[in-house]
UniProtKB/TrEMBL annotation:
The protein's name: Response regulator
Presence of keyword Methyltransferase: no
InterPro entries linked: CheY-like_superfamily (IPR011006), Sig_transdc_resp-reg_receiver (IPR001789), TCS_response_regulator (IPR052893)
Database matches in Pfam families: Response_reg
Residue numbers bearing the 4-aspartylphosphate modification: 65
Domain Response regulatory per the UniProt entry, residue ranges: 8-133
Gene Ontology biological process terms, A to Z: phosphorelay signal transduction system
Native source organism of the sequence: Flavipsychrobacter stenotrophus
Length: 133
């Protein structure tokens, strides 16, 4: 897959160390690829609304933590679900969480906005799975 054919990457996680790990792992697989990271879910949602309201923006792989203070990943998904189809259709969302709780995994599986559940830390194998249908 060529660099230009790649989607954008975004991480929303309140842990800056995890965001850095994600950037390192993604850049190992796709050197130089831009990754937008947010430790504040509100800022991430505002960025999505502003940037992806434009018709000619790329597809995006979003890595979303679920256990965050103030707005959880579930809250982010609720708000994301209320966005315009033109925005939502650009995103492929993966939960990236340290939670091994079966309930969280099942809830993610049942959410039509979620493409998969990945246990932290992010790995090269997980990145490769993003491109499998």
């Amino acid at each position: 897959m060529t660099q230009t054919a790649l989607p954008d990457f975004m991480v929303i996680d309140d842990d800056p160390v995890n965001n850095k790990i994600c950037s390192i792992i993604i850049n190992k697989q796709f050197p130089g690829k831009q990754i937008d990271s947010f430790t504040d879910p509100e800022a991430g949602l505002a960025f999505i609304t502003a940037k992806y309201a434009v018709a000619d923006t790329n597809k995006v792989i979003l890595l979303l933590d679920i256990n965050m203070p103030v707005l959880t990943g579930w809250d982010v998904l609720d708000r994301f679900g209320k966005m315009e189809d033109s925005i939502r259709d650009r995103f492929k969302i993966f939960i990236l969480s340290s939670s091994v709780d079966h309930y969280d995994k099942q809830k993610a599986k049942n959410n039509k906005l979620v493409s998969g559940y990945i246990e932290k830390p992010l790995t090269i194998a997980a990145i490769k799975s993003f491109f499998e249908e």
